[in-house]
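Expect chain and fold; thus:
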Amino acid sequence: MESMDRDSRTWALVSHLSGLAFFVFPFVGNIVGPLVIYLIKGETSDYVKRHAKESLNFQISIDIYLMISGLLAFALIGFVTTPALMLFDIIVIIIATIRANDGEHYGYPLAIRFVK
């Protein structure tokens, strides 16, 4: 477990929780939060930068998966995969937030590494 100050942990967990903005502003809100934190707070803390980057990569990936799932709705499969992806998104965001608060790193499953 990494030793982090409270401010860094808070920004790291906010970077994960901001992914839930998808449910307010689909396909934009979930990317803007981690991106802003990555660009602004990532300069002052490697811990925050790593968590924000991980969240950003996952949220971009989820958006791509949801677009594919939406297209699969024409084959009726998307009506099952879309809610499953949204539930998966919520669950892993909660896990990542808890890990960030505990000072640990969390690697999202199924995340494509767009930002290195």
The first helix runs from residue 6 to 17.
